[in-house]
Amino acid sequence: MALLTLSDAHLAFGHVPLLDGAGMSLDAGERLALIGRNGTGKSSLMKILAGLEKPDDGILQVQTGVRRVYVPQEPLFASGASVFEAVSEGVAEARALRERYEAHAPEDDLDALQTRLEALDGWTWEQRVTQALQRLNLDAEARVEALSGGTRKRVALAQALVAKPDVLLLDEPTNHLDIDAIEWLQELLVAWRGALVLISHDRAFIDAVATRIVELDRGALRSYPGNFAAFEAAKQRELEAEAQAAARADKLLAQEEVWVRKGVEARRTRSVGRVARLVALRQQRQQRRDQVGQVRLELDAGLPPGKIVAELREVSQRFGDRLLIDKFSATLLRGDKVGLIGPNGCGKTTLLKLILGEMEPSAGSVRRGTRLQVAYFDQMRAGLDLEATLADTISPGSEWVEIGGQRKHIMSYLNDFLFSPERANSPVRTLSGGERNRLLLARLFALPANVLVLDEPTNDLDIETMDLLEELLQSYPGTVFLVSHDRRFLDNVVTSSIAWEGDPAWGGRPGLWREYEGGYEDWKTQRARALKLRTADEAAAKTIPVAAPAPTGASAPAARGAAPRKLSYKEQRELDELPARIDALETEQKTIAEALAGSDIYTREPQRVPLLQARHAAIDEELMLALERWEALGARTSAG
Known about the structure:
CATH architecture of the largest domain: 3-Layer(aba) Sandwich
Strand order of the largest sheet: 5-6-7-3-8-9
Number of domains: 4
Number of helices: 21
Number of strands: 20
CATH superfamily of the largest domain: P-loop containing nucleotide triphosphate hydrolases
CATH class of the largest domain: Alpha Beta
Shape: globular
Helix content: 40-55%
Radius of gyration: 30 Å
Strand content: 15-25%
């Protein structure tokens, strides 16, 4: 039996139907990703599933005893509570039961209390709270009201996780989390034994966590088993079939409209059925859910700058005793798409300010290019006047904007970003979070700029808009500096990455930054490879005996130029077998990728999905080791 079942649900705001006869169910152990355009009603549906709101019509059935915990986009907490106290609310029942057990009254049934405490894992609730605080980098003593919005979201997330509910409902859980926290949350949710419903636009997160995708599209809910790639393929086929069916219906309707206007023949009794069919066709056309339009994005690249955007030489930046950047060097050229990778607070914003001349380094030098026109995407939306209209936000005092030397009316330009003309004079405060981000993009792209600085541009954006933004940035001739915790977006946009590597666990030192070719996954692979090689070198150094003093006299040069050791029989055999092993691993990985990209396995053998995903990742490591071993053995053969 399903834990939750929603049947024939209807919900409307004004004349806009958010749910139009929608239905869905959630089984035990399922991890369901709810996706859809901004403003389609995903958060409203989530609140209905959580029992916080009711639909205008329809039924939500909840299995007896099922406990639901909902984490909203903007969580609320008791005034004056510390972080530890706020998170402990997630284990309020366990905490109260243990206090009652430890100070039991004579009438208490200790056996019953102990049984319930064990069921709630209540003996160790402090450890669960402390662990959640540590993993989400939260200060237990801090006051919740003094925290930023992103940190408050992490507090709410910790509160929900320690509660161990049967159904966990998360609305945009990755917003404002850095990549390390997202990957930790990802691993935790994959291992989650309860059922999960999450709203997210993070495609890599959805791919890793979800076992099924449900799309809210024009009031209807459609279910797609499998990962995000399988959903995209199935959705494209559906849209093509829907467009063909609509075209056929429109053609038939046009033919019938021509016929009925002939008049005389249509009044004959034998034509009554045909007239009735025409009426039915008209009704069907009126009731058809038209596909929502797509955002149309254009950028004004401004004046061409010099070849060099910035050249950093041994740059360091210190604030008091804290060293954020230590002897970093890089040359950034016109047209580079640079991603900045690192946890919150590591110094990404400081590094950007040094690159763009808003701050001078404590040590080292920065040479900046000429004719730089910089436009910023403000992550916190601080630049938006909530009382200003949409039109005035884009083009104050004018009905026109100029993009790439061409004038465009403000109504048409707003329509490109899916804002109807009726909303052009609405205040900004009426927009949702995703719509405000779209408005910021509209304002940003109306400015001539040859350098774009994008700080978390994908927060609250729907997936289709992110896809279009990716395409736009890929073809943009200017330079892009991108700070994002969306791993897929980084991989699809940037050509190089500047990564913080100050974590001692990686062998880093305070303020260490390195530049890499490629995006997030490229950096992650190279970092793992370097860490593995360093670990192997350290292990080898511990086993090598201390060398004897170097020989002197005529024999010294011969000792320094000693020939490399030849391969043993076992090593030669290993070298001969490595190409076949590498081919076999690549073939196996390709087969697994094809299976995961399809939909059959999610329907027929869903229990195999996490196993295949784990094996696919493990093959990456095996391939890297095999290739490195092949290269090392081959080099010794050549040298011999």
